Amino acid sequence: MIETASGTGTRLADRTAVITGGASGIGRASALRFASEGAEVVVWDLDPVGIEAVVTEIRQAGGRAHGVAVDISDASAVAAAAAETTAVAGEVTVLMNNAGVLDDYAPLLDTDEALWDRIIGVNLKGMFLVTRAVLPSMLAAGGGSIVNTASVAAFIAGGGGTAYTSSKHGVVGFTRQMSFDYAHQNVRVNAIAPGAVETGMSKDILYNDDLPVVEALRSAPAGRHAQPEELANVALFLVSDEASFVHGAVYVADGGWTIR
Ligand code: NAD
């Protein structure tokens, strides 16, 4: 059994888990954590080198993992990825919609149509395309659990620019509507809303004094940024049976940023 700093177990034994953006950051940590609880993990990402690294790490530790290189904003590529996934790993019973891109804190007048389309295309439309492609497999398996990665930018301004904040507000709406529509078919849908997490996405931002968000980050009560593994543990709880009555929830893990 693969080991992580957070331990090992059987909470996801007999589950097949797709994790988008699983080659880096929160997705990578979640791939390792889910595998440590017995899941057969399928990493979906744009980055083939990153996919190979995490899949190799899980396999070498005795876990089960596969990788699929896919752009989640491309509907036909997503459909092909879903077919490949069920062919190699069976029906999907856990989905973590986590891949995302940031917009460098662009306000509206710095947001051209191409930037808007890219951010919404990955963060929101990509989530729609992936879920629509994977859900039939989950229903065929008799149900499952989905966790979507939102952000504190789903609730407050200043966690990203216009496109990013809009996309993350959309993720919460998507989560609630999906939960409402599919709970009776044994599908639970929830979201995590991270604050500042040290990952590839955030490394150029968290210590950039020119960005207004940095002051807010510094004054978060916890007084530090999160490590990706801390978000992976929240995602694990939500997809596991321990959260069996949790539907449509958005679980904030932000070091207290939004309670100030
Ligand atoms: P990251 O950059 O480390 O990882 C994101 C992964 O998504 C990368 O591996 C990237 O290749 C992949 N990806 C990007 N576009 C893709 C596409 N079109 N198709 C497939 N894969 C794609 O970033 P992270 O910080 O781990 O971000 C994960 C999620 O967490 C994102 O949704 C992000 O918005 C959210 N989030 C991050 C923070 C933070 O502080 N890091 C805070 C709140 C929310």
TrEMBL record:
It is an enzyme of class 1 (oxidoreductase). Its EC number is 1.1.1.47. The keyword Oxidoreductase applies. One of its GO terms (molecular function) is glucose 1-dehydrogenase [NAD(P)+] activity. CDD domains: SDR_c (cd05233). Gene3D superfamilies: NAD(P)-binding Rossmann-like Domain (3.40.50.720). InterPro entries: NAD(P)-bd_dom_sf, Sc_DH/Rdtase_CS, SDR_fam. It comes from the Bacteria. PANTHER family: DEHYDROGENASES, SHORT CHAIN, ESTRADIOL 17-BETA-DEHYDROGENASE 8-RELATED. Keywords: Oxidoreductase. Belongs to the short-chain dehydrogenases/reductases (SDR) family. The keyword Transport does not apply. SUPFAM superfamilies: NAD(P)-binding Rossmann-fold domains. This is Glucose 1-dehydrogenase.
